[in-house]
Specification:
This protein has 21 helices and eleven strands. By secondary structure, the chain is α/β, with parallel strands linked by helices. Strands 1-2-11-10-8-9 form a six-stranded mixed β-sheet, sandwiched between helices. It has a five-stranded parallel β-sheet with strand order 4-3-5-6-7, with helices on both faces. Helix 12 (293-312) packs parallel to helix 19.
């Protein structure tokens, strides 16, 4: 059933009217133990949601909503691959959804449970895990050589979307523990400037190129892969030597071989893993390449521990479910149309980009799983940036703008690079931002501050209006030790489950992306018109006019 027909929906609408009259600052003043009751330690992440516009009744109603939406059965389907009746979560593409199985411990891949897929799938995962580990061990032991006999020390990943954002986010996050002497680069954008910048930094004879495409048909990826082939040949590599430097992650083995990748250099990919959930698979090979097998296994372990927490923890102590339902609360009942993510750790600077794809590609849908047009808003706009840079860019709008924008603040309790008071200052900024957003500053307080600073009353009265902060802006705070494999794995897995729960509540298929498919189709048609000015492919007057401008420019060059 869609959200708007669930019994608790109207109760939550009525409750939202009551909550609108409250200020979170007053909730803290009336409850000295509010923090204790609305925060807890989840696997590798401490979660504080006390600065949200919620009471015990809010949490109870949101929990009731998850029950009415059948969340428990959907969660089991997420881990098993199908529902009780054999229904697939990705019903529009007739595909299972099994990315959680990719992070099962090795010991759990030898037998099925009530929350795992079939044994044949577990066997395939184990085989792939072993293939990755054996390859990474050889790299780190300098046993993988290039065509001149030099050991491989550089990996260039060629892929876009989930083949880029997830691995890039994690390699950046875990770069402090990367193996010395190794480097990793990414070519994602079809803009030739992207490939040019990367290729200008590498030494071809000690570099391997990993082509990441499930279908081995992604236009941008194959275009960049061909550019790389041309680059290698232009720099002295012979055709017969290319196979020593080309690798692939794909389910289309024939196409990869036809391109020039040796079969033994192809890692598997399955249709039950969506791109934005694929960093746990061989798509994550760049991560393992950089940090080693032990740390890669720890990354998977952290994610798996969050999976176990998601399955078993009661709602009021279930971090992914609470993250999801608080988002539903603001988006569906308060009209919030965006959600900001602010990591206060430079190594997590790429996280908002990954979460943007994870969330917006999953839940940016306008019809239910049954194809019914929805009468309510679905996925929010996800955006953000690192602290403290964001404080000097967009935080002004968060504090004094007219929009309700829930925020996630992610901070580390320790740093990889101790230096004076830097880290304390960073954490102080993070925590004080959540405090300021919540409690605000009244006009009266501002007026008194100005008088104390020596302003005369007329001037103080004027400026005080500009200094007023309404406060009552909700936020979640996540604390991790520092960017280590288990904490990063757990954090990303929590966001994956958050997106899944919201999809269940909104009754969406969170695992397809038909809007992206349309863009690809039209892109191919426009490309033909850019390549041939005389093509007769129909286009609207705006698109046709812009294409004509392109041809006019090149005719006059």
């Amino acid at each position: 059933m869609t959200l708007d027909v669930l019994p608790s929906y109207q109760a939550l609408k009525d409750h939202a009217k009551f909550i609108t009259k409250l200020h979170v600052k007053d909730l803290f003043e009336g409850d000295p133990k509010r923090f204790d009751r609305y925060s807890f330690q989840a696997p590798h992440v401490f979660y504080d949601y006390s600065k949200n516009r919620v009471t015990e009744e809010t949490i109870s109603l949101l929990s009731q909503l998850t029950a009415e939406a059948g969340l428990e059965a959907k969660v089991k389907a997420l881990f098993c691959g199908t529902g009780e009746n054999g229904d697939l979560l990705n019903n529009t593409e007739d595909r299972g959804v099994l990315h959680t199985a990719l992070r099962l411990p090795k010991s759990s891949l030898t037998q099925t449970t009530s929350y795992s897929p079939s044994q044949d799938i577990l066997d395939e995962i184990l085989e792939c895990r072993i293939q990755i580990q054996e390859f990474v061990d050889k790299i780190h032991q300098q046993e993988v050589l290039g065509y001149t006999g030099k050991p491989i020390d550089t990996l260039v990943s060629i892929g876009i979307g989930g083949s880029y954002l997830g691995p890039k986010t994690v390699t950046e996050a875990l770069s402090p523990i990367a193996k010395e002497g190794l480097s990793c680069h990414y070519i994602a954008n079809v803009d030739s400037s992207d490939s040019h910048q990367v290729l200008s930094q590498i030494v071809p004879e000690s570099t391997i190129f990993l082509i990441q495409s499930k279908s081995f048909g992604t236009q941008e990826t194959l275009t960049n892969a061909q550019t790389v082939k041309n680059f290698l040949l232009e720099h002295g590599m012979l055709q017969e030597d290319l196979g020593m430097h080309l690798y692939a992650v794909s389910s289309n083995i024939e196409a990869a071989i036809a391109f020039g990748v040796k079969e033994e250099n192809i890692f598997p990919m399955w249709d039950w893993v969506g791109g934005r959930y694929s960093l746990w698979s061989a798509i994550g090979l760049p991560i393992a390449f950089m940090i080693g097998n032990e740390h890669f296994e720890a990354l998977l372990q952290g994610a798996h521990e969050m999976d176990e927490h998601f399955i078993s923890a009661p709602f009021e102590q279930n971090m992914p479910s609470l993250m999801a339902m608080l988002g539903i609360w603001y988006h569906s009942f308060f009209g919030a149309d965006s959600h900001a993510v602010m990591p206060y750790d430079q190594y997590l600077s790429f996280l908002p980009d990954h979460l943007q794809q994870l969330d917006m590609e999953s839940n940016g849908k306008h019809v239910s799983t049954k194809g019914k047009a929805l009468t309510y808003h679905t996925g929010p706009i996800i955006w953000g940036g690192t602290g403290t840079n964001g404080q000097h860019a967009f935080h002004q709008l968060l504090h004094q703008g007219t929009k309700l924008i829930p925020c996630d603040f992610i901070a580390t309790l320790d740093t990889h690079h101790p230096s004076g008071s830097h880290h304390k200052m960073l954490l102080a900024n993070c925590l004080s931002q959540t405090q300021a957003l919540m409690q605000g500053r009244s006009e009266r307080q501002a007026f008194q501050e100005l008088l104390n600073r020596g302003y005369d009353e007329p001037k103080a009265k004027l400026i005080a209006k500009h200094m007023e902060h309404k406060g009552n802006q909700p936020s979640n705070t996540f604390l991790i030790e520092k960017t280590l494999p288990k904490s990063v794995g757990a954090l990303i897995a929590a966001y994956e489950h958050k997106v899944f729960v919201q999809g269940v509540i909104w009754e969406l298929n969170s695992f397809d992306q038909w809007g992206v498919e349309l863009g690809k189709k039209l892109g191919n048609e426009v490309l033909k018109q850019l390549e041939d000015a005389d093509s007769n492919i129909a286009a609207d007057s705006s698109t046709a006019g812009l294409i004509a401008e392109y041809h006019r420019f090149h005719e006059n060059k």
